[in-house]
Write a structure and sequence with these properties.
Keywords: Lyase, Metal-binding, Zinc. Its cofactor is Zn(2+). This is Carbonic anhydrase. Its EC number is 4.2.1.1. InterPro entries: Carbonic_anhydrase, Carbonic_anhydrase_sf. The structure is a single chain. With 178 residues, the protein is of the alpha/beta class. The protein has a single domain (26-177), classed as Beta-carbonic Anhydrase, Chain A (3-Layer(aba) Sandwich), CATH 3.40.1050.10. Helices cover 39% and strands 15% of the residues. It contains eight helices and five strands, in the order ααβαβαβααααββ. The protein has a five-stranded mixed sheet, with helices on one face. A hairpin with a 6-residue loop joins strand 4 (162-167) and strand 5.
Length: 178
Amino acid sequence: MSHPPTASDLIARNTTYQPTHHPTATLSERFASGLKGPTVAIIACPDPRCIPETFLNLTTWDAVVIRTAGSNVTAALPTLIAIDKLVGLQEIMVVNHTDCGALMYRDDEIRETLRARAPRMAHVIEQMAFGEITGTLEDRVTEHVAIARRCELLRQELREKVTGYIYDLKDGSLKHVN
């Protein structure tokens, strides 16, 4: 069985990739030519089995993918707001996936570990959220779509275009969650 690559292994892979690299237009070049940036933001989990670029067949400029533990919309908000300011997003997709690791831990357990590691930072640790998922994935998606739709920091037009999905790791399907 092979071992996961180290950072050094990945850097070495870059040297074999670089000769085949095809540059893409900078944002400035793209905007100057009248083209827009991506209009869809996808909030997904960083789990290496959940790769929106693959299961949505994305190419460059199709979408912006923001990855947070458990597809946590609250954690993604600063990035969403910045990207929207830059490119004028039109839609947000919240995508959770089956067998998510965030179903297997609790934020309180992580806080306990951190308090033991850094007791002087307890005041900061208590404010931290780590994306735990309690309940069903459907409930989680519904909750995070609602968080985005209620967030007054997002433009009203964008809040109206937030949808939620569950990606099934076994069959590759994407199920819309109402």
